[in-house]
Every structure is written in C-alpha cells, then in structure tokens.
C-alpha cells in the first residue's frame, strides 16, 4: 500500500469513463452492426450473460499467441484469456497440430480412448488424488462433485464461501454476492441469497455460506448446522478466491479448514477451475500443500476445448466405482479434448512455462505497485503465477465483506474501458483482472504497465 494515498475523485472517474466509452464506440462500428444482427436471434447478442456489455459487446475474429483480434481489426494483448482458459495462449502450435491429427481419426464416440486415462494419470500425480472422472465444464465438475460428496456422507447440506462462484447449477448459484452490495446478514450467520431467479427456495436454503479466511467462523457455522440437524456433506471452496480480483488464503487458513472438515466428517472440495493448471501443475494443492478430498478442474485443462475433471480419494470415489452414483455424460472424455489436454500437460505446461509465467507475473506485480507508490495511488497488487490484479482498494481485501467495503468498483469499470482502448483486454468488472499465457512476452507486460500508469495519472488529474 502507498504510505499516503490520495483521495479519488469519483466525478473525475465518471468523466473518464464517459470519455473512454465514447472512444470505444467510435472505434468499434463493426461490433455494433454485428450486435444489431445477433440480437435478433441470440439473446442479448451473446451466448452467455457473462459476455454481455452495455451498450453492446465487442466481437472478436481470431487469436494468435498472446494477441486477439477484434472484428474492427484491432490487435489486442489478451490478459482476459477466456477467464483463464487460454493459459497456453491462442493457437499454440503443439495443440493445433494435436487437434488436426485427432480430427482425422474421429471426434466423438462416447466410448473410452487411451488419452483419457493418460491425462488422468498426470492429474493424479500432480494433484495427489488417485481417482478421476471427466466432464465438459466447471459447472458440471462442481455439480457432480457435490452429488458424490452427498452420496459418500449421506448428508444434503452444502457449505460454501460467500462471494465465490462455482458454476451455474442451482446449489452453487447461492451467496455469490448481491448486486447492490446490500444486506448479507451477520458474519456468523450469512443469508443464503439466490444469484438470479429460477432457483427453488428449498435449494437455496440447502446451501449456507461463510466468510473466506476465517476458520473459526467456519467451524462455528458447521457446529450450528449440526445442531440444527443439517450437518454439511461438503465444503466447496476456492483455495484462493478468484472472482473478487484475487484473494489469497492467509497463512494457516487452508490447513485449519482441512482439520475442521476432517473433524466433522465433511468432504472438502477445492474448486480449482481457475487455479488448477494456471497457477502450478498441481494448482493450489501444489502451491499451498493442503490436499482436499476432492478437486474440480476445467477452464485451462484442454487448451481451449471444453473439458472438466473431478479428482478424489479412493474412499470418496468408491460411491461412483460401485455404481451408487451415476456420474455420466455423453461428451465426457471427448477424444479431441483429451488429446489437447494430454499435449498441454506433456508439451506446453512445462516447468519452463511456469517459470516464464512467474517471471511475467512478478514484473506486473512489482511495476504496478511501484507506479501506485510513485503517485500515491490507493491500492495494491496481488497475484499468483499467471493470475493477478491491482486492487483499487483503501485496505487489504481478505473476503467478500472487505471487498465491498474497500474496493472502488467504479475504478474497476474504468480500468476495463481504459485498457481496451489502449490495446489491452482484462477480465470485466472485478474478476481475476489479468491472466497470463505462456505465449505472453515482455512487450505485452510493457503495454499493460504503460496503460496502467497512464490511467493512474489521468485519474489523479
């Protein structure tokens, strides 16, 4: 943190946002035309609500290496990387060649192929969990993991971290946050809040939430739920929160959670959809040294192809192996995805690749922090391997409550616009602001840092 941060003028931020929005609209006429056409048949003109942008989304045509290209012909350094899916970079030659060869041999059978168990062998070694199954997305992975945990424990209640996203199925579309940062209830008894309509109240009530980085509060909530006859089947959590920027676990927190869940016979699920493969070969398990009962993966697993995975102990996966739980999916272990995943794990995400990611991330962290200190700009960086952000915050963010208290969300919105107009795309809002790829270079870092310094100077006037 800067020793004497200056106050941010909200009016100045709003004026800059208005100026930058006009500039973006002036430079993206083709995107606007595509939006008008797309909106006639595609809801909001996009395939996912997370792709929406007001007044219209920016459409892209292709990507190569660390760059993506808009339909208006702009080359952009990609620090969004599909919310981290593309840590391998775009059109990586090894993955492209693998997909070409696999396509000629057939793209789908709904039958087992060799690559699937070879990928599982790699994951078992990297994440220190022996048994695996494949799915097609992070949502499928967390959905099946929760079902498996329920079958294993004979319980129904789910416990999660308030503010964490675990996919779009009903049981985890609860207590992600509230749009207006309204009442979430007391810290020792957070409300279960639906994330959007269409989720039955009975399901919402079956999911409780606790704060991140507060093991005593987690244990107190677990004991209360047990007293109420609602002992949790599982705790599902990110080992490092990845959708409030990046929030790292405090020293000893994850081990305390591991001890608490073991004590109460609760299955501990690390949702590593965002940390897995992106932060280390063994993700957060490798980074922090705490081994859960289950791990869920997706995003970066298959180099941009749809794929997800569930890893678990022998004991937990016995409910699947015995046929007690039907863990199924026609496209699970799709040959294209498995071939790409194998190539990624064996040829792309190498020790040298992680060394490169760490080097680039260290540059971003140190140089953005230096800029903040130079100008007395309020905020600080936080990062882990390929992921990181600059928190526009007046104090350290450790959980959802501190996020809504300290984060300047208007600056987060301006940062996206400002970067986009200077050839840098980051995740919108306050996701993991940057995700690097193994194909990023020092030139990309220079572009990001220069844009950040210009933003800081303009905000301060």
Terminus-to-terminus distance: 20 Å
Topology, number of strands: 14
Can you give the helix content as a percent range?
40-55%
Can you name the CATH architecture of the domain at 93-348?
Answer: 3-Layer(aba) Sandwich
CATH superfamily of the domain at 93-348, by name, is Type I PLP-dependent aspartate aminotransferase-like (Major domain)
Molecular shape:
globular
Going by helix content, strand content and strand pairing, the class is alpha/beta
CATH topology of the domain at 93-348: Aspartate Aminotransferase, domain 2
H/I helix tally: 16
Please summarize what this structure is.
By secondary structure, the protein is α/β, with parallel strands linked by helices.
Outline the structure in words:
- This protein has 461 residues and is an alpha/beta fold.
- The chain has a domain at 93-348: Type I PLP-dependent aspartate aminotransferase-like (Major domain) (Aspartate Aminotransferase, domain 2, 3-Layer(aba) Sandwich).
- The chain has 16 helices and 14 strands.
- It has helices at 10-26, 29-38, 81-84, 93-103, 114-127, 138-153, 201-205, 215-227, 253-263, 283-288, 314-321, 335-348, 351-375, 400-406, 409-420, 442-460; strands at residues 60-64, 67-70, 75-78, 131-135, 157-161, 207-210, 232-237, 267-271, 294-297, 308-312, 380-384, 387-391, 424-425, 434-435.
- Helix 1 (10-26) packs parallel to helix 15 (409-420) and helix 6 packs across helix 11 (314-321).
- The chain is globular and about 60 Å long.
């Amino acid at each position: 943190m800067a020793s004497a941060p200056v106050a941010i003028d909200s009016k100045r931020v709003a004026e800059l946002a208005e100026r930058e929005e006009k500039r973006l609209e002036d430079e993206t006429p083709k995107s606007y035309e595509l939006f008008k056409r797309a909106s006639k048949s595609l809801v909001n003109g996009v395939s996912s609500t997370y792709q929406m942008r007001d007044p219209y989304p920016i459409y892209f045509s292709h990507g190569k290496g660390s760059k993506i290209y808009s339909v208006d012909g702009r080359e952009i350094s990609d620090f969004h990387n599909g919310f981290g899916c593309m840590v391998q970079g775009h059109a990586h030659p090894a993955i492209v060649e693998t997909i070409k060869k696999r396509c000629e041999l057939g793209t789908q059978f709904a039958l087992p192929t060799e690559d699937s168990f070879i990928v599982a062998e790699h994951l078992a070694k990297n994440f220190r969990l022996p048994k695996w199954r494949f799915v097609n997305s992070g949502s499928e992975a967390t959905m099946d993991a929760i079902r498996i945990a329920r079958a294993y424990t004979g319980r129904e209640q789910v416990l999660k971290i308030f503010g964490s996203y675990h996919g779009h199925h009903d049981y985890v579309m609860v207590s992600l946050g509230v749009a207006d940062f309204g009442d979430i209830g007391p810290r020792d008894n957070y409300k279960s809040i639906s994330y959007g309509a269409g989720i039955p109240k009975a399901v919402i009530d079956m999911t409780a939430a606790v704060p991140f980085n507060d093991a005593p509060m987690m244990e107190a909530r677990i004991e209360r739920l047990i007293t109420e006859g609602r002992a949790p089947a599982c705790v599902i959590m990110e080992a490092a929160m990845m959708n409030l920027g990046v929030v790292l676990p405090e020293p000893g927190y994850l081990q305390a959670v591991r001890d608490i869940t073991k004590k109460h016979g609760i299955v501990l699920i690390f949702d590593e959809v965002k940390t897995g493969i992106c932060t280390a070969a063994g993700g957060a398990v490798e980074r922090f040294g705490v081994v859960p009962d289950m791990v869920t993966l997706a995003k970066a697993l298959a180099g941009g192809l749809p794929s997800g995975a569930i890893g678990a102990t022998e004991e937990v996966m016995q409910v699947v192996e015995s046929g007690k739980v039907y863990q199924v999916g026609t496209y699970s272990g799709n040959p294209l995805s498995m071939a790409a995943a194998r190539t990624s794990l064996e040829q792309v995400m190498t020790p040298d690749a992680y060394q490169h990611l760490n080097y680039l991330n260290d540059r971003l962290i140190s140089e953005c922090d230096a800029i903040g200190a130079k100008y007395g700009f309020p905020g600080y960086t936080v990062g882990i391997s390929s992921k990181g952000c600059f928190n526009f915050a007046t104090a350290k963010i450790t959980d959802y409550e501190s996020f809504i208290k300290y984060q300047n969300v208007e600056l987060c919105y301006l940062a996206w616009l400002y970067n986009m107009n200077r050839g840098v795309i980051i995740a919108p809002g306050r996701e993991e602001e940057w995700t690097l790829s193994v194909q990023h270079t020092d030139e990309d870092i220079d572009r990001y840092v220069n844009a950040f310094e210009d933003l800081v100077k303009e905000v301060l006037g």
